[in-house]
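> run fold Phage portal protein, HK97 family
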Amino acid sequence: MKGEGYNFSKWFRGGKSIFFGSAGGTLATNETIFSAVTRLSNAMASLPLKLYKDFSPVNTSVSDLLANAPNRNMSSFDFIRTLETHRDTSGNGYALKMYGSNYQVESLVILDPARVQPVIEKDTLDLWYEVEGDKGRYYVHNMDMIHVKHIHTNGYKGISPLAVLRNTIDFDEKVRQFSLDTMDGAVKASFILKMATHLSTDKKKEVLANFKNFYQENGGVLIQESGVEIDPIKRDFMDTKVFEVEKITRSRVATVYNMPVHMLGETEGVNYNSMEQLSLDFVQNTLIPIVRQYEQELNRKLLTPKERLRGLYFKFNVNALLRGDMKTRGDFYFKGVRSGLFKPNEIRAWEELPPEKGGDSLYMSRDLSPIEERKEPGKGVSGR
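> ok
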């Protein structure tokens, strides 16, 4: 429940959250879904997350919490990746705000989404979360719970992507099992020996033994004698359409997770001129909506209205995924400096280099004199 100094300690047993669980066994049995969830969760966890004010990073207890250790058992990377993994499997990721004695957020603890259910309070119409604990049922106000989700129909609980993909997963598993059964039940022989005459049982065994020994001792080379025909047995497991099914599975998984199919290993029909276009496609069409949801959830529930009015906001830096190769970055930085868009020290910070004296000024083209000098009479072009 919501309230100053509310104690959630009875929800825990032995220092470990009883709700922190695995979000679906399908990840361990389907490589395509595992790849998609890994790609999304790693991408979100790799994005730098900072608290800003007027475009400049600021440090507070809450920003330090998110940037380093949201709880005593997890780093920021593990926290975001696990939350995103839950969102991409069950459709919902939950993290409970844990308060200290002065009602300051001290930690964020991830809950098992299978034990959390959004509900609407009848009189106030406020959103609460019904949590099944080890000692009963608890209710948490929506401002005390970080909740990221997939698309939904009621505005409160996301739809599970695995539920959407259930038919695809079942079909894929059946085709794979059929393929394995076919391989196990197939004839193990590799050649057919045709003799011109009928041979006794003992003679057949002798010929077969000689054939095997000669094949092994001569590196797989066979000599076809007169009266003997050697036909290799061809095995074509493509009849099971395994590869076609895998392509269909990749396409459907990519569609459900709203990500380019090439991110799951599909290269057929993919035509991109550069790695920048590949990254841009993934960032614009896949990550931006997810990033925006995280930012708004953190701004709303980890910042007070006064802090937001002062201009504080959380922001993921997606530019880290769009840096391109050395040549592309160099051209971009060069044009940015010459057009007065970037300061040299800003670029040095992006490249993780220390600032230099004079690098905090904006420059213009031609003689690249500081903009301030051009505004002063008698200096630069304006003084001519």
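The longest helix spans residues 275-302.
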